[in-house]
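Two proteins were folded this term; both appear here.
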Amino acid sequence: MAGSSRGRSKLSALDNQPTFAKRIEALRQCAVSLRDAAELVRSEVEHMDAAQERFAARAASAATRKKS
């Protein structure tokens, strides 16, 4: 009988959950936020790669000038 009371309390807890449509909308919003974050990270990676290339070129140029 204890098992059946647990089943009832679980059912009543589910009644407080958002509707399926609300959960879908929340997931869609989350997906948009994640996509925006991924684009931001990708942009930052591209920026850092470009900066690294500039620093490497400057270091190579400075090393060449020191040898001269």
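Next, the second protein.
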Amino acid sequence: MASLNAQYIKDHMANIHTNDSWARAIAERALAEAVTKIGTISADAVTIDAKFHVTAIETKGCVRLCTEIGGVLICTHINL
């Protein structure tokens, strides 16, 4: 039996998102962060900081692409 650890779980998250669902998850997270950032004031616009993390996943032969918004990572895997 394989040992269950964080990397094993992350490797198996590869098929959670399609390109469309990943984009929707990013949009939802950005809007949630905008709500948090703007609070009770009104504004013409709010800027949300986002980071992208790209990692090679050799065991799966793919690249993991994660977007970080407000400390939350939303990841997808890109295969050849």
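The longest strand covers residues 50-57. The helical segments are 6-11, 19-38. These notes refer to the second protein only.
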